[in-house]
Amino acid sequence: MPRLVVVSNRLADPRKTAAGGLAVALADVLNNTGGLWFGWSGKIVEASAGGKAGEGELHSTQAGAVKLVTLDLSREDHDAYYVGYSNGVLWPVCHYRLDLADFDAGYIAGYRRVNQLFARKLKPMLREDDIIWIHDYHLIPLAAELRALGCSQRIGFFLHIPLPPPLILAAIPGHDWLIRALFAYDLVGFQSEADHSHFCSYVQTEAHAQNLGEGRWRAFNRTVQAGAFPIGIDVEEFTALAEAPEGREMYERMRREYSRRKLLVGVDRLDYSKGLPHRMRAFREMLQKYPETHNSATLIQIASPSREDVSAYNDILHELESLCGSINGNFGELDWMPVRYMHRTVARTRLPGLYRASRVALVTPLRDGMNLVAKEFLAAQDPQDPGVLVLSRFAGAAEQLREALLVNPYDIEGTANAIHLALQMPIEERRSRHQSLISTIKEYDVHWWCDGFLDTLAKAKAEETGTPWLRL
Question: What is the number of structural domains in the chain?
Fold first, then answer.
């Protein structure tokens, strides 16, 4: 069996249950093949520490059968590759926020430099029959850099964030270079059919690619296959967390402390793509429009810290804190606080208990690649008395979870009405919706996602001319 080599910006130990979705998904196949996982160490080497910029130290550790190899970055490279281009250009544009993109900073040179560095460091560790799976927007050009060094292995790429429509994507200076880089892969995967459709539209209109059928496109002397592979969760693992001691303790405590309330829950990274101010305005609108929810509905909103060195995140933090304070000041009573807001991370082992104790989950991003919180909430529910999922139609998960209450988060009044409907929904309807939703997430779980992508990559037809791949 060929070895799987995974490359991502950050790594996680696949042996740890709480390592996160990607590690859970890849644990079996990495362990079975004695795989390699390569990425940034998270360490930044300051210039004063000496050494050539961008030539950080390699670190290697063994996690069971899996070899984890990480690389340090210089401050200059980190600021250009990670903060500047990945999160200052690609992230906002892919989430349709052209107004927040910093196009003029010249970060692209650092982005290309770090991808070249990754390729140089990774190549000596590769075997001829390896299957290479590269993840997310930080590493779009990595396959092209590996090809330029002579790598002929089968290489797949998965984009975890949305791909915007062609006209938005074309706002990026050098957008054609990014898409050309995708043609160095044998398979490119997207979270949703909408994202896949945007890719197809772009390569037709901008790259004049030839449609070969069955998801295959030819341009730049290369053939690439593309498709939608919506990522899932490990439903059994998350359900087990709900029944584990920490999950049960959290559930019992929430039910005890909020016995007279109907709990709503939101769990998000603090990010402008998550629509948190819009959510708070919708909750405020519901309280104003439906007085019977006073002294009853309590929203627990967890907004974990995220990229706090970027001004846009400080702005949204202050706006969110102001809205929460305003709602509590205008509607709260001595014994009831409408919003319980926490700007910190809650342990993954405790979240299932919080989800199960909640009548409603609010998953209302303005744009999201998938959003696994929606699926985790469903997995944690008691099938006999399940909660209701209020889900943004602009989350990738909405393509699969049609039985949720789908909302337009920009429509404050419409979202408020949906939240009220969720709070009042009779148990028969809640059970019916949950039964359909849980069936979907069990069928299309994280193992289906991983196996489906790797099986398709194994069958993808790599066709190119005899011309060697030239560095972009």
Answer: 2
Number of neighbouring beta carbons within 10 Å of residue 359? 21
Selected catalytic residue, list 72, 136, 186, 368 = 368
CB-CB contact of 369 with 306 (8 Å): no
Tell me the DSSP string of 364-426. Answer: --SSBS--HHHHHHHHHS-TTS--EEEEETTBGGGGT-TTSEEE-TT-HHHHHHHHHHHHH--
Decide if 469 is inside a domain: no
User: Average pLDDT for residues 142-169, to the nearest whole number?
Assistant: 97
CATH label of the domain that carries residue 330: 3.40.50.2000
200 and 51 inside one domain: yes
Condensed to tens digits (0 to 9), the pLDDT of residues 268-303 reads: 999 999 999 999 999 999 999 999 999 999 999 999
Confidence of residue 57 (pLDDT cuts 50, 70, 90): confident
Same domain, 345 and 357: yes
- pLDDT, average across residues 214-219: 96
Contact predicate 424/388, CB 8 Å: no
The answer as to whether 470 is a domain residue is no
Could you say which of 13, 160, 343, 447 is catalytic? 160
* Residue 466 forms part of a structural domain: no
Question: What Rg do the C-alpha atoms of the chain give, in angstroms?
Answer: 23
Domain match, 164 and 228 both: yes
Quick one: pLDDT at residue 106? 83
Asked about 175 being catalytic, the answer comes back as: no
Share of the chain above pLDDT 90, in %: 85
Please report the beta strands in 204-351, taking only residues with DSSP state E, as ranges in sequence order. Answer: 210-213, 216-219, 222-228, 262-269, 297-304, 339-342
Statement to judge: residues 228 and 301 lie in one domain:
no
Whether 64 contacts 133, CB under 8 Å:
no
Q: Is 368 a catalytic residue?
A: yes
